[in-house]
Design brief:
This protein has 335 residues and is of the alpha/beta class. It folds into two domains: 5-127 and 325-334, Rossmann fold (3-Layer(aba) Sandwich), CATH 3.40.50.720; 132-319, Dihydrodipicolinate Reductase, domain 2 (2-Layer Sandwich). The protein has eight helices and 14 strands. It has a six-stranded parallel β-sheet, sandwiched between helices. The protein has a six-stranded mixed β-sheet with strand order 10-9-11-14-13-12. A two-stranded antiparallel sheet has the order 3-4. The radius of gyration is 20 Å and the shape is globular.
């Protein structure tokens, strides 16, 4: 008989924390006891897991006694503050924040790409950035076959990537615009998001790129064990509620045709092909929302090259699920 595990979710009341709990239930993860942890203001709030109501407790340094796996989605500052307490108590920490992703001793894992890296953990496993996860799930099978050399990406990132408050802001602003109200409330995102988009996610760095754009570069290299991969990325916030999309231009070391790419991707884990443009079938965030798989389509030869080593494609994936909660639970399943 398989044994159950004592699981803690830190940041249990946030959008990702709630989806972590729902994903554990949906995938029938062997949970013996579930401990829901959040900040002081959420204490006593009840969440339903497998028909049972569980009260949220305050996240403290002694919260991890008897816990086997601690799923963290409480932000980088909290992850850094409580990591030692979780690991010292004997728990394996699967962290959804950016706190430990680029630490040499911490594996950065996407189960469809580098599940074997889980074995190298010393108490902490990092969950990559949502846009990076969606990208590498789609790109890695092609890299394995033809060796990816260079990648140029443009992302179309939903409001949910900035949290539940950003989703509310998109909804409120949309209502205000449609009601003809010129005084829009802009509080969460750096610009108006209703009927607009802006190329500004995270903070700008000295090289002119944002932190989000550089995360895709550095994290992609680490996950795929491809330190020389050349990446250039522009990350854009779009007025979509949920699920990120990305336009990818790829250069490989060997020739690759769209037909070959479709064949490779149709057998790859965590992917669904949506590639029949003649019948209006292509990846869309509205379809990817609530799905575990990354949708891949618009696969075509890069006609700006005089060889057959370039490909373009468009992808969509639910960044709260595959980009965060699901990926963390899949790592827990490997453990």
């Amino acid at each position: 008989m398989s044994k159950g595990y004592n699981i803690a979710i830190a940041g249990a009341t946030g959008a990702v924390g709630i989806d972590m709990m729902l994903t554990l239930e949906k995938r029938n993860f062997p949970v013996k006891n579930l401990r829901l942890l959040a900040s002081e203001r959420s204490v006593g709030k009840k969440l339903k897991f497998k028909g049972e109501e569980i009260a949220v407790q305050e996240l403290k340094h002694d919260s991890f006694k008897g816990i086997d796996i601690a799923l963290f989605s409480a932000g980088a500052a909290r992850s850094k503050e409580f990591a030692k307490s979780a690991v010292d108590a004997g728990a394996v920490m699967i962290d959804n924040s950016s706190a430990f992703r680029m630490d040499d001793g911490v594996p950065l894992v996407v189960p469809e790409v580098n599940p074997e890296d889980v074995k190298t953990h010393k108490g902490i496993i990092a969950n990559p950035n949502c846009s990076t996860i969606i990208m590498v799930v789609a790109v890695y099978p092609l890299h394995k076959a033809k060796k990816l050399k260079r990648l140029v990406a443009a992302t179309y990132q939903a409001a949910s990537g900035a949290g539940a408050k950003a989703m509310t802001e998109l909804e409120e602003q949309s209502k205000q615009v449609l009601a003809g109200n010129p005084n829009l409330s802009i509080a969460v995102l750096p610009q108006r998001i209703a009927f607009n988009l802006f190329p500004h996610i995270d903070v700008f760095l000295d090289n002119g790129y944002t932190k989000e754009e550089m995360k895709m570069t550095y994290e992609g290299r680490k996950i795929m064990h491809h330190p020389n991969l050349m990446v250039s990325c522009t990350c854009v916030r779009v007025p979509v509620m949920r699920a990120h999309s990305e336009a990818l231009n790829m250069e490989f070391e060997k020739d690759i045709s769209p037909e070959e790419a479709r064949k490779i991707l149709s057998k790859a884990p965590g992917i669904q092909l949506r590639d029949d443009p003649a019948n209006k079938i292509y990846p869309m965030p509205i379809e990817a929302s609530g799905m575990y798989d990354v949708l891949v389509g618009r696969i075509r030869q890069d006609i700006s090259r005089d060889d057959k080593r370039g490909l373009d494609m468009f992808i969509s994936g639910d960044q709260i699920l595959k980009g965060a909660a699901l990926n963390a639970v899949q790592i827990a399943e490997i453990l």
